[in-house]
Amino acid sequence: MSLQPFVTAKEMCDYLKNMFVHISGAHLHTLMQGLRGLQQDDMTIDDYYSAFDRLMGPVLSMVPSSTAGCDGCSKKNTFIEQFMMYQFVMGLRSEYEPVRAQLLNRSPTPSLSEVLSSLTAEEARLCSLSSAPSVLAPQSVLVAAHRSRVSDTSTPCEHCKKTTHRSEHCFAKYPEKLAEFRARRAARGRGTSAPPRGSVSVAAASPVHAPQSSWVLDSGASFHVTSDKS
């Protein structure tokens, strides 16, 4: 509504310039301090550029206008754009260092729009990497499988309240089952067979003629033993 009294575009432009373009050493000093302390931190590239433009825009408005067709003025504008690009990339986070080094070493120096395009593409790539599922190592898969088996028996035993076994296999409740388990374990250590308990594990079902150095994975075992002390 403050522009309503003006008729021509020039009158409006002059009014806005007097209101918002403050050419003073104190104002320039304040803007430069803001630029020096500006860092990307947790902002996106777009948000960081918006914050940068809010400070750099008033600084550029203080630069005297150039004459059309002037060769020196064209070089001055090129230098100002390079200065803006250098100032902008200084505040980027460390993960953009490879792109920053590539941009600073490019010849001719890229424009600020080209810099924004490269950084936005790199930001998208980093986001896709952070959201991609990690590839588990084989031992991690085994650990995850073991944890899933443990979670299957996470219901506490009704007798001793432990979550490592079910109530029907509780040694504290059924001491005779503990004696049977120890007998089977001792028999496996001696290389002899033991009476089955209703279900045969992989280790118990392995051939007796297997070499002593071989290992057989028993995914259902609660204790892992071998007759070879080494």
Q: Uncertain runs with pLDDT below 50, 5 residues or more?
A: 148-153, 198-208
For the sheet with most strands, the description reads: none
Between the first and last Cα atoms, what is the distance in angstroms?
A: 90 Å
Q: How much strand content do the residues show?
A: under 5%
Radius of gyration: 37 Å
Secondary-structure element string: HHHHHHHH
Mean pLDDT over the residues: 75
Give the oligomer, counting copies of the same chain as homo and different chains as hetero. single chain
Taken from the alpha-carbon principal axes, the silhouette is elongated
- The number of helical elements comes to 8
Number of strands: 0
Structural class comes to: mainly alpha
Helix content: 40-55%
Explain the overall architecture.
With 230 residues, the chain is mainly α. Among the domains are: 9-64 and 75-125, no CATH class; 156-208, no CATH class. Helix content is 53%, strand content 0%. It has eight helices and no strands. α2 (25-37) runs antiparallel to α3 (45-61). The protein is elongated. It starts with 8 loop residues before the first helix and ends in a 40-residue tail after the last helix. The model is unreliable at 148-153 and 198-208 (pLDDT under 50).
